[in-house]
Design brief:
single chain; about 375 residues; alpha/beta; Spore Coat Polysaccharide Biosynthesis Protein SpsA, Chain A; three-stranded mixed beta sheet; 9 helices; 11 strands; about 35% helix
Length: about 375
């Protein structure tokens, strides 16, 4: 009897120990899976971050750094790794599809390396607009161009007074577009076409060109060029300078010499600030001659000096032609030149009037057609 009771007691004790062991085992399994589920969650976060970066096109060159941890090392908890991940891997947060900002372009060099120097200029080959477009595929509508690899200091509007010179214009575009591109100029070309057959007024057309070009873009430099003058050296850089610039200082028709010290004709350039300082150009020089001397007077009377390139670089060829009809020499030009000091404040860009008829953008230039009126009747000689 005693043995039977002792056996049952031992049996109960064994069952209790077994139950305790089983309970202990279950608790350990619960804790075990809880800890590893947290580790698995951390692995998922790392994998999602890496895959998301790859899917967004990001690699090692995108500025993201990936950190790998040994999560099975002893004496470490999942909470420690989670804290480290939050501190060391901020790139795993969503980036809202942000794109890297483009790298700013460097300034264009003062002396572009692609210049060739002295050029061979001839006017015997056949020239068409189709040929010009093939030669200048990077020029955009309206005759605009901007260098893709550097940042020019100036934004240049090139303004040409015009009437009935279509053949000359083709040669001008043929030579000048490649020159200006090699010079790394940000530019646009504007042909200011005087409609009708009344007396030509070069300086007034240049004022119109200045006004209309500023409606098209924020230019800060203006080059004024006759359509029949081609530079013979691409080192004659078409941008603005600290002083008003006279580019065409040595034309073939003058024996490649400056005809006189105050000559400012052919091709010249002024910054916007310089142009406004002299009140632009005179509007009352109808017919040929005198306006460039008036402009020279305006410059000197306002305390500025004319700058010029070296005579070996400022050489130009002129396309030969007969004098235009309705552009006869102005008999009043000498009297007007002597009165520049009295007239320049009231006659200029501040008093400009004209009628804009049409603005049309062609592949190689922008054509602006205007009506500028007629010259006042000449006083009758008593």
């Amino acid at each position: 009897m005693t043995r039977l009771m002792l056996g049952r007691t031992l049996e109960r004790i064994c069952k209790g120990v077994l139950l305790l062991c089983l309970l202990h085992f279950l608790i350990m399994m619960i804790l075990y899976f809880d800890v590893y589920s947290q580790r698995f969650d951390l692995f998922s976060r790392f994998n999602n971050g890496r895959n998301g970066s790859r899917n967004n096109g990001s690699g090692t060159g995108s500025g993201h750094h990936y950190y790998y941890y040994n999560l099975s090392r002893p004496n470490a908890t999942s909470a420690t790794y989670l804290a480290a991940a939050e501190q060391l891997v901020p790139s795993l947060q969503p980036e809202n599809n942000q794109t890297p900002s483009p790298k700013p372009l460097p300034p264009c060099p003062e002396n572009p390396p692609g210049l060739v120097g002295r050029l061979l200029i001839e006017f015997s080959s056949q020239m068409t607009m189709e040929r010009l477009q093939k030669e200048n595929p990077n020029v955009t509508e309206g005759g605009r161009y901007k260098p893709p690899d550097c940042r020019p200091r100036w934004k240049v509007a090139i303004i040409i007074p015009f009437r009935h010179r279509e053949n000359h214009l083709k040669y001008w575009l043929h030579y000048l577009h490649p020159i200006l591109r090699r010079q790394k100029i940000d530019y646009g070309i504007y042909i200011i076409n005087q409609l009708g057959e009344d007396t030509f007024n070069r300086a007034k057309l240049l004022n119109v060109g200045y006004t209309e070009a500023l409606k098209d873009a924020e230019y800060d430099c203006f080059i004024f060029s006759d359509v029949d003058l081609i530079p013979m050296d691409d080192r004659n850089l078409y941008h603005c300078y600290d002083q008003p610039r006279h580019f065409a200082i040595a034309m073939d028709k003058f024996g490649f010499r400056l005809p006189y010290a105050g000559y400012f004709g052919g091709v010249s350039g002024l910054s916007k600030k310089q142009f406004l300082k002299i009140n632009g150009f005179p509007n009352e020089y109808w017919g040929w001659g005198g306006e460039d001397d008036d402009i020279y007077n305006r410059i000197t009377l306002n305390g500025m000096k004319v700058s010029r390139p070296d005579v070996r670089i400022g050489r130009y060829r002129m396309i030969k032609h007969e004098r235009d009809k309705h552009n006869e020499p102005n008999p009043q030009r000498f009297n007007k030149i002597q009165n520049t000091k009295n007239t320049m404040k009231k006659d200029g860009i501040s008093s400009l009037t004209y009628k804009l008829v049409q603005v049309k953008k062609y592949p190689m230039y922008t054509n602006i057609s205007v009506e500028i009126g007629k010259p006042p009747p000449r006083p009758i000689k008593g």
